[in-house]
Amino acid sequence: MEQHANESTTSATDGYRFEMPVRWGDLDALNHVNNTVFFRYMEEARVRCFSIAGVGAPGSGRDFVLAHSACDFLRPILWPATVQIVMRLTRLGRSSLEHEAEIHVLGDSEGPCARARNIVVGISTETGRSAPWTPEEIQGITRTLGAPVA
Question: What's the pLDDT band for 11 if we cut at 50, 70, 90?
Fold first, then answer.
């Protein structure tokens, strides 16, 4: 898949990075990004990352589902801003993987605004059940997210 200007894959330890603007509609009554939107930011990055990795390509008979997500909200995100979601692979199993994600505000050097842990499972679209990663998917995952880091 074609890579866009707002996403990058770097070294094995840097993982996958995706940037997107904070939209005014992402704000809540307290005038900061609503906590539920943090999960949408991570979802957008995850879908783009897996598309680049070749997981869940149309017609492949394969897809992926999010099995678990946990997020620690460390600091609020205000508008206007651009967020960068950084994803790193922490475990690659037979049919699942775990990755960490951090959400940063570009131009803000105070560290991440959120830190998350997600578990993704590869599935067969025919059965809807978990299925082992293919060799091509493993290659794409490690190329895009890097080798697992502890």
Answer: very low
Give backbone dihedrals phi and psi of 145, rounded to 5 degrees, phi first. -95, -15
Q: How far is CA 69 from CA 40, 46, 101, in A?
A: 12, 12, 10
Strand 96-105 relative to strand 7-9, pairing: unpaired
pTM of this prediction exceeds 0.70: yes
Task: Round to whole Å and give the CA distance between 115 and 100.
Answer: 7
pLDDT digits (tens, 9 = 90+) for 17-75: 999 999 999 999 999 999 999 999 999 999 999 999 999 888 889 999 999 999 999 99
Q: Among 16, 105, 123, which residue's Cα sits nearest to residue 67? A: 123
What are the C-alpha distances in Å from 91 to residues 100, 118, 147? 10, 10, 9
- Cis peptide bond prior to 80, omega within 30° of 0: yes
Residue spans per domain, the chain: 7-145
- Looking at the domain covering 7-145, what would its CATH class be? alpha beta
